[in-house]
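WARN retry 2 of 3 for item q-0093 after timeout on previous attempt; input resubmitted unchanged.
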Amino acid sequence: MDPTTLDLGLLVLRLGVGLPFALHGFQKLFGWFDGGGFRGTSGWFASLGFGDGRAATLLAGTGEIVGGLGLATGLLTPLAAAAVAGTMTTAAFVNNAENGYWSVAKGWELNGYLVVVAAALAVAGPGALSLDTLLDVPGLLGVGLDGVLGAVAVTVGVLGGWLRWVTRMVPAP
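OK item q-0093 returned
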């Protein structure tokens, strides 16, 4: 394994996005880092129409931890990217859709950036400095279509995030 500047750049990107993303999951599930924990996050999701909120908390927290650590380590990168993209798609709708695009107005701009980063890593791959490379994981199916598989995985993640949003029960005003 002879890392290149590109591999180092991919490592910095994966760590810079993946680790903070995973920390958000630890906030949701365990209350670490001043997070709401499972009970508090479940109550918040319930207030948004996600049933009693427990399934939404489990899905979001697990998606953030598994997706974030998967990106950070470069392990099963397309699947990790799909988890990130799906979680951020739902978050864009939950937190920000009615506020428009710009984050200065509490819009979905940051959520969109994270979906794009996940898609880029899924298509480009994690680089030589990754567990996928170390373990010789040949894409998801062992074929030469890793970029296509990454794009498909992220598309499925985005559609799953959108589906989770549209199937919630809209709370009464």
